[in-house]
Amino acid sequence: MIYRPKGVCSNAIDVEVEDGIIKSVQFTGGCNGNLQGIASLVAGMKAEDAIAKLRGIKCGFKNTSCPDQLACALQEILDH
Q: What is the pLDDT of residues 27-80, one digit of tens each?
């Protein structure tokens, strides 16, 4: 699934979840090194656990962040 994040520097998050487990995450745009690290850390994690850890993280003065937007993408996948 390709998710279009809102309010952050990245402009796309490509997320693959199988049986509730995150298989892969790839961000387009944003802080490349940090987002590669996040993608690597959540690979193999239960989507619900990643959502719990990432939801609500803010970036500077923004009301959201790339990790928070990843949580939104994962929630959308689980809801469908």
A: 999 999 999 999 999 999 999 999 999 999 999 999 999 999 999 999 999 998
d(CA 73, CA 31): 18
Distance of CA 18 to the CA centre of its chain: 15
The answer to whether the CB of 19 falls within 8 A of the CB of 77 is no
Phi/psi-derived region of residue 42, left when phi > 0, alpha when psi is between -120 and 50, beta in every other case: alpha
Q: Say which residues have a Cβ less than 8 Å from residue 10's Cβ, sequence separation at least 6.
A: 27, 28, 29, 30, 35, 66, 69
Q: How far apart are CA 55 and CA 47, in angstroms?
A: 12
